[in-house]
């Protein structure tokens, strides 16, 4: 166990109650957030993007008409019971689930019809057809993997992403419309704005309910235009994020992504989020201390954060030598911002009881 894990575990042993945490995102970014959040609580709900149109997910979406299952599968694996829900704090280990988790994540090789398909994607697609409902299928696989939290799609229907991209024409001022998550994520141009198709899609009702009852809501990291911003383009999800009394933390990426955010500063990430959802506010912006140098860049980031109503929290949250978030370090960083907020509340209202989430 790392020092960060021990710090989280030490505080967790004194909990009076666990926080209800909701994490929104997709792909590897959401996997990292969930791996951190489960160290703070076993009451973790993942709300996952449903616009993937590539690889195994894209094939199943096209052939079967199902919600793309890949990002949902990864979220299930991140919360599966093969690891303690709360590191060092009495979490229950389920060795028998380890084989199932590995199998769910396994991808077929070869050159036949199954080549490239993830086993978990096929299981989710099959469960959806048998049960007639994506959420029911996710809950059933969650029971198989002994998940204490829940994995939900952000919308009950498959969505598409469309982007306005500049830099693809001779005239740099001319934008081109690019459609599809994979196309947007890999475009050599600069993404200016994204939309969902159909526009104003419905939100998953259970996801809205989870945000309403949450104590802590996490957004990011991940592909900014295709995994993070889509959540605020679903009207009922944005309304829930705007109205919730939960503390909201935005977790920034460790580095710009080729294609989507090449050349973006940390400040620029906040600006484009605000452009897509001007009414959205957050409480904290979590930034890796090594990814934003001290000086002018941090000053610009602080100004952008204030426009969101947020404070910036710097911490070492990266796997050494990589652009990947370290689950234990990120958990410790989130624990610190919540603990500091609770301490400020106690000082502002003497005598007020505040539940510790450490």
TrEMBL record:
Q: Which InterPro entries match?
A: CofD (IPR002882), CofD-like_dom_sf (IPR038136), Gluconeogen_factor (IPR010119)
**Does the UniProt entry include the keyword Cytoplasm?**
yes
The subcellular location is: Cytoplasm
- Pfam families named among the record's database cross-references: CofD (PF01933)
Question: What are the protein's GO molecular function terms?
Answer: LPPG:FO 2-phospho-L-lactate transferase activity
GO cellular component terms attached to this protein's record: cytoplasm
GO biological process: one example: regulation of cell shape
UniProt keyword annotations, A-Z = Cytoplasm
Give the UniProt family note.
Answer: Belongs to the gluconeogenesis factor family.
User: What is the name of this protein?
Assistant: Putative gluconeogenesis factor
Gene from which the chain derives:
yvcK
């Amino acid at each position: 166990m790392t020092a960060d894990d021990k710090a989280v575990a030490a505080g967790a042993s004194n909990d009076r109650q666990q926080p209800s945490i909701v994490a929104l995102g997709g792909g590897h970014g959401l996997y990292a957030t969930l791996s951190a959040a489960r160290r703070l609580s076993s009451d973790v709900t993942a709300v996952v993007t449903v616009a993937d149109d590539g690889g195994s997910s894209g094939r199943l979406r096209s052939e079967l008409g199902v919600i793309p299952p890949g990002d949902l599968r990864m979220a299930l694996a991140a919360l599966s019971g093969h690891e303690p829900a709360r590191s060092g704090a009495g979490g229950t280990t389920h060795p028998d689930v380890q084989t199932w988790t590995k199998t769910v994540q396994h991808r077929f090789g070869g050159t036949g019809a199954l080549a490239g398909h993830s086993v978990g994607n096929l299981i989710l697609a099959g469960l959806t057809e048998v049960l007639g409902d994506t959420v029911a299928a996710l809950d059933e696989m969650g029971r198989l993997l002994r998940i204490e939290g829940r994995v939900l799609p952000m919308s009950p229907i498959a969505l598409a992403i469309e982007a306005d991209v500049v830099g693809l024409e001779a005239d740099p001022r001319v934008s081109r419309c690019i459609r599809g998550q994979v196309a947007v994520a890999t475009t050599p141009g600069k993404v200016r704005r994204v939309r969902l198709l159909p526009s104003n899609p419905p939100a998953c009702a259970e996801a809205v309910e989870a945000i309403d009852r949450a104590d802590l809501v996490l957004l990011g990291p991940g592909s900014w235009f295709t995994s993070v911003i889509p959540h605020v383009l679903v009207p009922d999800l944005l309304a829930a994020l705007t109205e919730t009394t939960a503390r909201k933390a935005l977790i920034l990426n460790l580095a710009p992504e080729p294609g989507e955010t090449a050349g973006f500063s940390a400040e620029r990430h906040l600006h484009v989020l605000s452009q897509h959802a001007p009414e959205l506010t957050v409480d904290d912006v979590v930034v890796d201390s090594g990814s934003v140098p001290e000086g002018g860049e941090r000053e610009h980031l602080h100004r952008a954060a204030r426009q969101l109503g947020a404070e910036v929290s710097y911490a070492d949250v990266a796997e050494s030598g990589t652009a990947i978030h370290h689950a234990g370090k990120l958990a410790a960083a989130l624990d610190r911002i919540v603990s500091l907020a609770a301490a400020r509340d106690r000082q502002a209202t003497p005598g007020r009881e505040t539940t510790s989430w450490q």
